Amino acid sequence: MAGFVRELERRGGPALRLEQRAAGGVGCVVWDAALVLAKFLETGACPLARRHVLELGAGTGAVGIMAATLGADVTVTDLEELQELLLLNIENNKHLVTGSVRAKSLEPLLKTLKDLTGPDTCILCCYEQRTMGKNPEIERKYFELLQMDFELEKIPLDKHDEEYRSEDIHIVNIHRKQMNFPS
Asked: According to the 3-state scheme, what is the secondary structure of the chain?
């Protein structure tokens, strides 16, 4: 399948080189929200060295691979049909990784979040707010369901990277709600 490369500049060295696909669905390209979150991680606001990071819906793996270049041990996940692209991008950028990165197919999203998180897990969700079609309703329902088990904190726009930010791209810090277990 025909592809093209997106370079993601890094402050501390050579750019990430990310293969994209001309056809195949939304996971085949580097989205603006991925650039915003990757550049936010580079600010150091959420130190990643020796942390375990899980990227859900990784697509090309841009954010997860960036996190791995910052010393994190990363698992990037997406649908089975995107595994080949994820593995290709991991291989093409492995010389820049100071932590580790591996690809897995995990779904569905909410069950995965509940199964793989604990009280000390830091989840960062970055998304571009959509206003057309069914997208607003899907987004509303997703966050409504998410809040049953998680607390959400929106990262203010002034905390995003100065160059890579947009008013319609949001970063949300998500933490598992504290559970009261009987003694």
From this structure: CCEEEEEEEECCEEEEEEEEECCCCHHHCCCHHHHHHHHHHHCCCCCCCCCEEEECCCCCCHHHHHHHHCCCEEEEECCHHHHHHHHHHHHHHHHHCCCEEEEECCCCHHHHHHHHCCCCCCEEEEEECCCCCCHHHHHHHHHHHHCCCEEEEECCHHHCCCCCCCCCEEEEEEEECCCCCCC
Q: What pTM value is reported for the model?
A: 0.71
Instruction: Decide: 147 and 19 in contact? Cβ < 8 Å.
Output: no
Tallying the residues shown for the chain, one arrives at 183
Predicted pLDDT of residue 181: 41
Buried b (16+ CB within 10 A) or exposed e, 1-16: eeeeebebebeeeeeb
Which parts of the chain have pLDDT scores under 70? 1-2, 106-108, 133-135, 180-183
For residue 118, count CB atoms less than 10 angstroms from its CB and return exposed for 0-12, middle for 13-18, buried for 19 or more: exposed
In this structure, are residues 55 and 113 in contact, taking their beta carbons and an 8 Å threshold? no
Phi, psi of 118 (to 5 degrees): -130, -175
Question: How far apart are alpha carbons 66 and 10 in whole angstroms?
Answer: 8
Q: Which two tokens stand for residue 176?
A: 């598992």
Structure tokens at 107: 């779904």
Nearest CA to 112 out of 172, 176, 49, 64 is that of: 176
